[in-house]
Amino acid sequence: MRFLLDTHVLLWLLGSPDRVPAGVLDHLADPAHELRASSISALEIATKERLGKLRPSGLVEAWSARLSDIGAAEVPVSGAHAALAGSMRWAHRDPFDRVLVAQATIEAMVFVTVDNALRDLPAPAILTW
């Protein structure tokens, strides 16, 4: 099974893993599963740091190394992902979330989030707590 991490879940895994329930951590750490992080999360984190909504973490500067630390691979944003994100008939307006959902949909990944606004998203599968 492949899991695409929502940006906040990625940040928690890297800096505050205690915020993720033990059962979810165990599931994500299972070697039979693959962790993925979207390149759109790097954009989201950099934007929030620039705007002062997130403390600078050094994550963007060390993106590949930090993903490797948790055994995650990067999913680049493709034209197909962008086109689906822009065309989805879904009231949610956050462009970062829309791209993540599009990637999970096109790449057939389970989307991992705790965001209540995403619970009824049009992705094929979702893991929440």
**Which second-level CATH architecture applies?**
3-Layer(aba) Sandwich
Radius of gyration: 14 Å
| Global shape | globular
How does the helix and strand content classify structurally? alpha/beta
Number of helices: 6
Number of strands: 5
What is the fold named in CATH at topology level? Answer: Rossmann fold
Q: End-to-end span in angstroms?
A: 18 Å
Task: Tell me the count of domains.
Answer: 1
Percent of residues in helices: 40-55%
Superfamily (CATH H level) name: 5'-nuclease
Could you state the order of secondary-structure elements as H and E? EHHEHHEHHEE
Main sheet characteristics: 5 strands, parallel
Averaging pLDDT over every residue, what do you get? 90
What are the main properties of this structure?
single chain; 129 residues; alpha/beta; Rossmann fold; 5-stranded parallel β-sheet
Question: What is the topology?
Answer:
Blueprint: E1 2-5, H1 7-15, H2 22-29, E2 34-38, H3 39-50, H4 63-69, E3 72-75, H5 79-87, H6 95-106, E4 110-112, E5 126-127
Parallel strand pairs: 1-2, 1-4, 2-3, 4-5
